[in-house]
Amino acid sequence: MSEETTDKTVEQWGILELELPARVDGNPFVDVALSATFSLKHRAITVDGFCDGADAFRVRFMPDVPGEWQYTTHSDCPELDGKTGSFVCGPPGSGNHGPVRVEDTFHFAYADGTPYYQVGTTCYAWVHQGDALEEQTLETLKTAPFNKIRMCVFPKAYRYNDNEPEYYAYERNEAGEWDFARFNPEFWRHLEKRVGQLMELGIEADLILFHPYDRWGFAKMDAESDDRYLRYLVARLAAYRNVWWSLANEYDLMREKSMADWDRFFRVIQESDPYQRLRSVHNCRQFYDYGKPWVTHCSIQSSSLNRTREWRNTHRKPVVIDECRYEGNIEQGWGNISGQEIVHRFWLGTVGGGYVGHGETYIHPEDILWWSKGGVLHGESPARIAFLRQLVEDGPAMGFTPLKWRVPVPGVGKGDEYCLFYFGDSRPGEYTFRLPNEHQYRVELIDTWEMTITPLEGLYSGTFKIEMPSKTAMAVRMQKAEGNG
Amino acid sequence: MSEETTDKTVEQWGILELELPARVDGNPFVDVALSATFSLKHRAITVDGFCDGADAFRVRFMPDVPGEWQYTTHSDCPELDGKTGSFVCGPPGSGNHGPVRVEDTFHFAYADGTPYYQVGTTCYAWVHQGDALEEQTLETLKTAPFNKIRMCVFPKAYRYNDNEPEYYAYERNEAGEWDFARFNPEFWRHLEKRVGQLMELGIEADLILFHPYDRWGFAKMDAESDDRYLRYLVARLAAYRNVWWSLANEYDLMREKSMADWDRFFRVIQESDPYQRLRSVHNCRQFYDYGKPWVTHCSIQSSSLNRTREWRNTHRKPVVIDECRYEGNIEQGWGNISGQEIVHRFWLGTVGGGYVGHGETYIHPEDILWWSKGGVLHGESPARIAFLRQLVEDGPAMGFTPLKWRVPVPGVGKGDEYCLFYFGDSRPGEYTFRLPNEHQYRVELIDTWEMTITPLEGLYSGTFKIEMPSKTAMAVRMQKAEGNG
Question: Which CATH number fits the domain that encloses residue A66?
């Protein structure tokens, strides 16, 4: 039994990685069991390790409280068994708020309590495009308004997606077929590198584990291979604090999988993941039953953003509308709405008490469409989404709740302190608000497209009428004036 | 028994009116039964007469075939009974196509076979505004694109509708209360004059018989009064070939009426109306059951114009979306959408195989909003609605049928001859059509807002791609080229 003390101090919610060399006969990906128990005082957490190629094994762990942690490895391979050691977990680094979790039924927050207001985008296959484009995508994300990205583990075969990926998740056997029992460490290291870079940018990686747009066979593996894949994925990636598990994109288009398969996938992940990262699954036509206990939030494809409040009430979980059609001009209806329309949808989802996702699909001479490959953004919506994000972040902590006041315009807010009304395609020339009399409010007119905030003079209370500009996409923000009520 | 031969030749689908003076004791509106049987050879049609004030009785009849008609009156009042006579029905005058009826399950046509493509508007209380404004409304209608107008028999009490009408349908009793057994002939003559003027303009009068926006008590009459009202109305107005019976506006907001009342109203009208004019009823939240046999067509309030095809399939009757929100800028959401939005809704309804209605609600210094009072039109939509009407009229006879071709854009057409696709909020930069190979088509790009039709060069067949302008509200028209296939 060997003991090792690492000098390295790992930050809270950072990654401690154990490197464990061992010569193994047979297939090290399936023939070796490896785990490690990390403990701090009487608390112990056992996590699975994984084979990272010939003779190389690793265990990754995300410590969630500062202090001195101990570990012991367990394996049926004597070389890997009984390794012990300790390391110190220090305070989190700048910008590290920990993993995102569900807060207050309908919202999200980082582990340190900072609210997380999901503003998603979609670049399904961005990690399969080669370094030049992938780095450009990361560069774009640095200044884009998005704090979550939906991305597939497996490559994508679909219109505008004809290129082969640089790496594959599996090795091929001698017959040239995929060997679903032998993972390709290069693929996984590349994926982890990109996930880690997103983490540094403060962007959650909504990892899509399965999807139907496949020409390689990854959508048609047998159940044993599927489960092995999931466990390997979780062992490698769960320690990244920015990982979310999206079991599929358009799960209901994957004909080879039954509902029992999807339920089992959730269960396998739930069993394997020591951190209980956020879990959901994205639909094409039919929602998965978000009421099932292993689902942490809704991940919705729908154009009916006005149903957001209904979905909250039905599922009693955070509502993320990950796909509501994309800004662009391709043939497909899901990818050719205007910037105005997708911004309108972001606002509808927001005032319904939910969170919305962006995508962009402009025809490109080299088929570099943001929605799938990343690159640069061309659309008009990101600036307006940034404006909305800023408004939300300037709002009350921990998200908006649909208003219970009887105002016939959708609105969100927090108690009597704050309210935000969105008029959408209604464009009144004047509007009468009927609010409670108890408080006085500062009132601002917001042009969601022009990104202007115009304060109205004076304070308002009870029933009052304001002039409005007979324009679409206007919002009104009311904040309780200090020093009254 | 007296015999009279009128010299007057009545045009086909015109009105023959018998004037029958008689001194009657008591209440001539309820104490006298009067009808007349009109016959041509072996065909006989009995219609009810009505009291038109002191000592004045009338019977109105719309002859529907040319020839010499005979008539005999029937009454329990000897002075009115047994009057006989004849008149000649001649050919219809210019612009007179007869009454509109249902054609081919989902469409309408005039009695002479001319297709009637419903393009409605709404001026609920226009006949209660006094001559100056009413004549201005008629002047506006002369050049407006509308061939149907929704209008209430009773006056309207609602926001922007504070004025008293000039005429009331009833006399008051000595206590100053309405006497629902004594009609006010002045009111009715005025209404008939306006209906007749609409008829001259070729505009159908969709008469709304009840509505909830009432401060006079006309929405709360007892059942006997309701039925008397309906029979009197039918006796007076059914002979006008442009009359439709709309049993209510927002029937489901009339708390005093039960579903049994609505069913009875339909039955009373169906029994009384010799011509079986079109009958429907308009909802607020809940549709009346359009499947009931006395309903001739759907009269829908809804914003879900994309459900038009579903409503056709469900109800198997023509679908008229009479209210889909109005162009304007008032506070209420139903009256503040843009011209673009209502035109979009007209197109959605049209490519769903239905017919749509317009309304306009711009804030006006004297509260003259077209939707209720008429006057002049201020909006941007009527010109585009006229453009759409012209396109429809230029299309295949007797209306559009949703296409069965597997094209993911809503389209209507007629067999393989003609198709019209509408892209709505989809704004592709290019589009691939996959049509049958058998025929060649002329293809035109239509900008529904700019009202332009741009023919593409050449002929197209089978699978082909066209360039499109990445703009919303575009349509594509395809017409089979002559001389092929």
Answer: 2.60.40.10
Do the domain assignments include residue B218? yes
Of B338, B428, B472, the CB nearest to A330: B428
Does a structural domain hold residue B403? Answer: no
- For residues B72 and B142, state if they share a domain: no
Question: Are residues A365 and A318 located together in one domain of the fold?
Answer: yes
Partner-chain contact A428 B338, CB within 8 Å? no
Of residues A331, A409, A472, nearest to B431 (C-beta): A331
Instruction: Report the domain count for chain A.
Output: 3
Same structural domain, A70 and A135: no
Q: Which of B336, B425, B431 sits opposite A428 (nearest CB)?
A: B336
Nearest-Cα distance to chain B for A319, in Å, is 23
Contact A337 B427 (CB under 8 A): yes
Q: Which long-range contacts (CB under 8 A, 24 or more apart) does A39-46 make?
A: A39/A69, A39/A70, A39/A71, A40/A65, A40/A67, A40/A68, A40/A69, A40/A70, A41/A67, A45/A274, A46/A74, A46/A274
Q: Are residues A294 and A383 in the same domain?
A: yes
Q: How far apart are CA A444 and CA A477, in angstroms?
A: 5
Measured between beta carbons, the chain A residues lying within 8 angstroms of B329 are 427-429, 470
Domain boundary among A61, A90, A119: A90
User: Residue A101 burial by CB count (10 A; 0-12/13-18/19+): exposed, middle or buried?
Assistant: middle
**Measured between CA atoms, how close is B362 to chain A, in angstroms?**
9
Strand partners, B447: B452, B474
Q: How many angstroms separate the CA atoms of B173 and B452, rounded?
A: 60
Judge: B336–A408 Cβ closer than 8 Å, yes or no: no
Contact residues, chain B, for A422 at CB < 8 Å? none
Look at B329 and A428 and tell me if their CB atoms are within 8 Å: yes
A304 at interface of B, judged by CB pairs closer than 8 A: no
Task: For chain A, positions 324-383, list CB contacts with chain B under 8 A.
Answer: 329-333, 336-338, 341, 362-363
Q: In terms of domains, do A159 and A296 share one?
A: yes
A329 → closest Cβ in B330, B428, B432: B428
The string of DSSP letters for B359-400 reads -EE---TT---HHHH------SHHHHHHHHHHHHHTSSTT--
Identify all chain A residues contacting B432, using CB atoms and an 8 Å cutoff.
331
Query: Which CATH number characterizes residue A458's domain?
Result: 2.60.40.3950
**Structure tokens that stand for A147 in this block:** 């704090």
3-class SS of residue B332: coil
- Answer whether residue A399 is part of any domain: no
Residues near B310 by beta carbon (within 8 Å), at least 6 away in sequence: none
Name the residue range of residue A441's domain.
404-480
Asked if B472's CB is within 8 angstroms of A329's CB, the reply is no
Same domain? For A384 and A416 the reply is no
**pLDDT tens string for chain B (485 positions)?**
456 666 678 999 999 999 999 999 899 999 999 999 999 999 999 999 999 998 999 999 999 999 999 999 999 999 999 999 999 999 999 999 999 999 999 999 999 999 999 999 999 999 999 999 999 999 999 999 999 999 999 999 999 999 999 999 999 999 999 999 999 999 999 999 999 999 999 999 999 999 999 999 999 999 999 999 999 999 999 999 999 999 999 999 999 999 999 999 999 999 999 999 999 999 999 999 999 999 999 999 999 999 999 999 999 999 999 999 999 999 999 999 999 999 999 999 999 999 999 999 999 999 999 999 999 999 999 999 999 999 999 988 777 788 877 778 888 888 888 999 999 999 999 999 988 788 899 999 999 999 999 999 999 999 999 999 999 999 999 999 976 44
Hunting for tokens 């708390």 — which residue is that? B255
Q: Which of B331, B409, B430 sits opposite A363 (nearest CB)?
A: B430
- Does residue B190 form part of some domain? yes
Q: Which amino acid is at A102?
A: V
